[in-house]
Structure formats: C-alpha cells, structure tokens
Write a structure and sequence with these properties.
By secondary structure, the chain is an all-alpha fold. Helix content is about 75%, strand content about 0%. The longest helix has 28 residues. It starts with a helix and ends in a 9-residue tail after the last helix.
C-alpha cells in the first residue's frame, strides 16, 4: 500500500501524528525518493505504445539503411542518420522540457541509435571497410560481426554516454549494453590472440562480459536511488552470463546438476533483491534441466513423469505459500539482511 503526501497531512490533521513528526517524515521520504531526473518506470497502455513505437522506429531505420546504402551509397546513409538524429533529438528535448520524460527520453534514445548508421555510412563512403572485410548490409550488424563494427559500437557507446549526461533515460542504457556486448564479440580475437574465433571462445567471452555487466548493475543498484537504470544492466548481463553458461556443451551430469543449483540460486537472488529478471532466467534454467532429465536420464522411466508432476505441484504450492506470507518474509528479510544487501532492495520491498 502506498501513501501520498496528502494522506500524511490528513493523518496529521486527524491527530494520528504530530506536526513535527509529519515534517521529519516528509523530509526523510523526500530524501529517499528516486531522482526526478529519470522517468519512473511504469507498465500501462501509454508506456507500452511509447516503447513499441521507439523499437519500431529503430528497426525501420535498420531496414531503411540497407535500401539507402544499396541505392544511394554511404554518404546518403550518413546524411539520413544525422537528419534523423537531429530531428528525434530536438523532438525528444522538447517533450523532456515539457515534463513528458518517458516519450521524450525514448526519442532521445532513437537519436542515439542513429550513431552506428552514421559511422557505417562514413566507413563505406571512404572505403574503410575494405581493410577489414565488407560485411554487406547494416542488417548484418545483428548476425555478422567483423572488425570494422568496432567503430560503430564505440560511436554508439560514446553517443549514449553523452545523452545520459544530459538526459537520465534508462532505455539508453539498453542501447549501450547491446553495443558493448557486440564489442566484446569483436574483441574476442584480440583477447585470445587469434585471427579467427570459434563458438567456444564467444561463449567464454560472453560469460565474462555478462559477469562484468552484472557487477556494474549491482554497483548501480547500491549507489543509485533509481532501479530503472539497473534493470537493463541486470537484463543484458543475465542474457550474456546465463546464456553463455547455458550454451555449455559436453557437461557431465554433475555439471548439469550444478547448473540447476545455479538457477535455484538465481531464484533466491530474485527474492532477496526483488529483481524479477533473475527469477525468469532461473525458472527457464531449471525447466531446461528438468527437460534434460526427462529426455536423457529418465527417458524410459514410468515413474519420472509422476515424480516431475509432484515437483511441479510442490513448486506451485511453494508459490502460493510465498504469496500468502510475502509480507512476513519481506519483514524478516528487512530485519535480518545486512545493510549493504538491503540497499539493493527497492523501497517498500517490491519492484
């Protein structure tokens, strides 16, 4: 249950709390309130449409860049990207200053996403692709990563950091995270000192990159009063870290059991710091392990489906028990967790 300042003043007027207590309480709550520089995350129809529209525009520019490059060349592609960046940046700044910070911030994020297209056009125009091997079209940016992509990724990160300096938009962190992940793949040959790299090298780099992003996410959660910036870092960090570990081939049954325990640990982390992303990846990992047991280990066992059904029922029952005792569990965690861990939890104990 949430309370507004009006509710607290009404309680003071009714004599429930003294005027001095009211002022101290309001001062404390204003101090703990998330910074107003960043738009608060919500999930409603308007926000869904805003985010969907931003993703559609970013995707449309990726498709347009392919046509523009093939018909007009790199110079036209760079010009179009710059015009788009200026137009969306100006519109986003206008909305931001009118306190429409979610749609305005998303338009700023679209402007940031034009950076790799502009750099790609410049590289093509000056023939710089020839040195590293021309990949084809910008659409291949998502499926084929070559050395020259590094400059596009650097430009995206720089543009994102500059935008964050003036506009505290959490979604920009998502764009930066994707660019950094691609950059980690580009740097794989340099890390292993080889001219070509295979799937196993990519997997290892992905795990360590994800671990690094998760470390940054925890630092952001610890030092920031807004959880929205950490959300994207947790999400992409988990995608890289969990994805790299899940893609391990040739693991023994013991290794797969340890993998299952790791995913159980993710569920525990989700409960402690109230981050749903950990619960999603943990649940998927446990499901994958149970599927492995059903397909390989207990393939011909008639009892395993019944045992698995009982496990499923037990999980549902555990979820119901947690739902009923959620407030009690939250209070117990608040009373027993170290202060450093409590700082990672959202205010009120819910995300």
């Amino acid at each position: 249950m949430s309370y507004s300042e009006t509710d607290l003043r009404a309680a003071s007027s009714a004599g429930a709390i003294s005027p001095d207590e009211l002022q101290r309480l309001l001062a404390y709550l204003h101090q703990r309130a998330p910074s107003t520089d960043a738009p608060r995350a919500k999930f409603d129809a308007a926000h869904l449409l805003w985010y969907a529209g931003a993703l559609i525009v970013i995707g449309a520019m990726g498709l347009f860049s392919t046509v523009a490059f093939s018909q007009m060349g790199g110079r036209a592609l760079t010009a179009c990207a710059l015009v788009y960046a200026l137009a969306f940046g100006f519109a986003g700044d206008h909305l931001w200053r009118r306190d429409l910070r979610v749609p305005g911030g998303l338009l700023i994020a679209i402007a940031v996403s034009m950076a790799p297209l502009a750099v790609y056009g410049l590289q093509a125009e000056f023939g710089w692709w020839g040195r590293f091997g021309k990949p084809g079209t910008v659409h291949d940016f998502y499926v084929w990563i070559k050395g020259s992509w590094l400059f596009m990724e650097i430009a995206t990160v720089v543009a994102g950091c500059i935008a964050l300096r003036f506009y505290r938009v959490p979604f920009i962190v998502a764009i930066i995270s994707v660019a950094l992940w691609f950059m980690s793949m580009d740097l794989t040959p340099w890390i292993f000192n080889v001219s070509h790299f295979d799937w196993e090298m990519r997997r290892i780099v992905s795990i360590w990159f994800g671990f690094g992003i998760l470390s940054v996410a925890w630092i952001v959660d610890y030092t920031s009063r807004s959880r929205d910036f950490g959300f994207w870092l947790h999400l992409f960090g988990l995608m890289a870290f969990w994805g790299g570990i899940s893609a391990t081939e040739g693991a023994t049954e013991l290794g797969k059991a340890i993998y299952c325990l790791m995913n159980v640990g993710l569920l525990a982390v989700a409960v402690i710091i109230v981050r749903r992303a950990y619960a999603v990846f943990g649940a998927i990992g446990i499901t994958m392990y149970l599927g492995h047991l059903a397909e390989i280990v207990f393939k011909d066992s008639l009892l395993f489906p019944f045992a698995l059904s009982l496990i499923g029922v037990a999980v549902v029952a555990a979820g119901l028990a947690y739902h009923r005792k959620q407030r009690v569990i939250a209070d117990w965690l608040a009373a027993n967790l170290p202060a450093a861990v409590l700082r990672l939890r959202p205010q009120g104990g819910a995300e």
